[in-house]
Amino acid sequence: MDLPLVDLLVFLVYMAAIVLFGISFSFRKRTALEYTTGGGRLPSWAIGMSIFATFVSSISFLALPGNAYLSNWNGFVFSLSIPLAAWIAVRYFVPLYRDLKSESAYYYLEARFGSWARTYASICYLLTQLARMGAIMYLLALPMNALFGWSIPLIIICTGVSVIIYAMLGGIEAVIWTDAIQGIVLIGGALICVLVILFSMPNGPGEVFTIAAEADKFSLGSFEFNFMESTFWMILVYGLFINLQNFGIDQSYIQRYITARTEKEAKRSTWFGSLLYVPVSLLFFFIGTALFSYYQAFPDLLPENLRAAENADKVFPHFIVSGLPTGLTGLLIASIFAAGMSTVSTSINSSATVFLSDHFKKYIHKKETTERQSMRVLLITSFVMGGLSIVVGLAFNGVTSALDAWWALSSIFSGGILGLFLLGFVVRKAPGKAAAIGVFCGVLVIGWMSLSPVLLSGTSLDGFQNTLHTNLTIVMGTLTIFIVGFLLTGLLSKQTTGVS
Questions:
Q1: CB under 8 Å to 24, separation ≥6 — which residues?
Q2: pTM
């Protein structure tokens, strides 16, 4: 299938405009602190849009409609956990990190448990971001390859290079402002799709709801307390832990807290960005449901090769190409790329910030660094992380399920650092020794739950994997670190009291 020239031009103009806009922020002299925090002068609405755009990736833009098309709205329950996580973030996390006055999220862990905790958490973060960026660029390339025959490696390389250029040169200001634009583009694109589908139905918009309701497409899943399957409660618990990790210990989010002018504006941007994702994710799920109704009404419009369950994620891109008027198709393809590029640019900038603060200044160059040295490290690290993410994206090419691979890698690389953070935040007297043992136990649990189906295949232990849903790996790792650390803190305090 060839992309019409008009749509191709719309897409290319969008890509060029975003890159040039991001580069424009490099034309004035900046300090390293301004490069990583924007000098704390960015407006709250732009920061909020950046937080929202960080939530949304090409995974969300393609996988959520595909999930709803194939099944129901069970995955939307993840979004229902966001308001509670956001309230906790606004009440506790935002003031905490703004008071620390450090551009690194992991300085807090060093203050609580020692330098090992900061190093451990920052390495986990860097590895997670590499896996995330690679997965996003690969999943972005898949539908483009299926629809237009575009080369997957070429898409990954071109997308990666485009993001590297403006994220490296423009710093956090370029990332946040381009995120804001890309967030608007992807919301607009999604709304256009919904309207086109609704008013293309032979018996009017209401037919979408009639067909979907008959197929139980609006279900949020089973309400049984069953954590072996994807029930309402399992997704809610998983979503709460993931979002607490995002708001509480993820550099990508925490760096935005300190780009705002005041604590009040930082809180406002956190509320705005997080709560905006809830209706937009609902919009993505509705697109999938509406597409189900649309292709039930027009079955001949869906090619035979896209009817298989494993191709559900390609149904939405197929509609974009075949069901939208010329010109809008180019805009929607730009929306898909916007979703991916906004997340990758955020990861590049935050990873460079972490490397400078938590590794270069701490271990490589222990003397006081000059502004020139710091800026050089930030630029080089942005380039290297972006380049490595392209390599990771290329490495994903050919895997059976890139989404499953990303989930497995994210569970492993997260290292349960949310549990370490909560231990330090809740148990104020927790010693570093108790935290270290807790982390060791948590990593064992995460490794076992993540890798046992592969490493222990055919053994009796392999059955343990079926007692909990795989999404709960990060939950169990987090709880293990917190509980072990909590119990050891009590034990060590009793021993100390007994000795004295």
A1: 170, 174
A2: 0.87
